[in-house]
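Attaching the record inline, Q. Sequence:
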Amino acid sequence: MPPVTALLSSPRTDALTARGRDFLGTRHAILCGAMSWVSERHLVAAISNAGGFGVIACGAMTPELLDAEIAATRTMTSKPFGVNLITMHPQLLDLIAVCAKHRVGHVVLAGGIPPKGSLEAIKDFDAKALVFAPTLALAKKLLRSGADALVIEGSEAGGHIGPVATSVLAQEFLPHLAEDHVVFVAGGIGRGEMIAAYLEMGACGVQLGTRFAAARESIAHPAFKAAFFSANARDAVASVQIDPRLPVIPVRALKNAGTEEFTAKQREVAQALDQGQVDMHEAQLEIEKFWAGALRRAVIEGDVENGSVMAGQSVGMVRAEEPVAEIIASLIGECEASLSGN
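Structure, as predicted:
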């Protein structure tokens, strides 16, 4: 029997996502958000094999670990997939070199403004660079500087977030960028009707993370997935910044004891900053290391009380463990029905 996605007839959706699908080289213009410890070879390959676009979350990986992860993913899918790199990673250019070695077609730069030389390094091996931007002015600047596509991600998303809602960002960005650029929308998307709305506004495709985190192919611990199934939108809260001198990017996760632990971690790092034990860059990296460890405790070890259960506000729409192909099929089906006026 052919894959579920091969059976889909979605002419209206296909027409509106033509540029996005061509850019990604996929059947559907649906990217998976990069989720550390979750977006690894199994989930990435499953999404790509189902017609979407899987993205490896490099996170705090060393170049050696990323090298192995890309190679392992290639054994599981022949379809296109990308790699997400954190711009503040101290070995960013080495990680880009690993992507070049494997001829990765798409590199996503996340977590801040791409440092000097990073976009050029990606273009040197003819890969496509995707970036995030919190403001329209910065988005235009990055696209002029060589970025090939933009992801608009609002505060409803899980993990690291900005302060503005996806719906507002879409209204602000798309009228100015959609005609001439490839733009994907992310944050709070849990159903196909929402995808349809953004496509009609000019988006070329969408990115989802939360919906895929609890997929059958996700290696996340059963307790991590169970936390998703029992949660609702208001359970996914953004972390609080306690010291304005320490620029901590808010993170959205399910509220638990780990949320309080992060507050204590901020105080610890702020004190080290005061005492000159670390500089601002080191302080930010210390926070990122905290999140990587806390997320691992939740995703891999199943400690959903003390770990970080990162989830977007769409978590209330995740009610059961489903195969990736069925998730994509339902999203496309809902999107097509909405565009058809059904």
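The radius of gyration is 19 Å. The chain is about 45% helix and 15% strand.

More tomorrow.
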